[in-house]
Amino acid sequence: MRHERQLELLQRVADAGPTMRGLHGPASAVHSASEYTDRKRFDDEMRVLFREGVSFFALSCEMAEPGSYRSGMIGGVPILVVRQTDGTLRAVVNACRHRGAALVDGSTTGRDLDVLQCRYHLWTYELDGTLRARPGSAGAFDDVTMNCDLHQRPVAERHGMIFVRASGDAPIDVDETLSGAEDDLGAFGLEDFVHIETRTIGRAMNWKLLLDTFTESYHIRGLHAETLAPVFDSNCIIHDAFGPNVLAVGFRSDITDEFAKPVDERSLLPYGTIQYFLVPNALLVHQVDHVELWRLEPEAVDRTRAVVSVFAPERPRSERSWTYFVKNLDLLLQVTGGEDFPVMEQIQRNLESGALPEVVYGRNEAPLIHLHRSINDALAAAGCGPDH
Ligand code: FES
Ligand SMILES: [Fe+2]
Question: Which CATH number applies to 3-52+180-381: 3.60.20.10, 3.90.380.10, 3.80.10.10, 3.40.50.1380?
Answer without folding.
Answer: 3.90.380.10
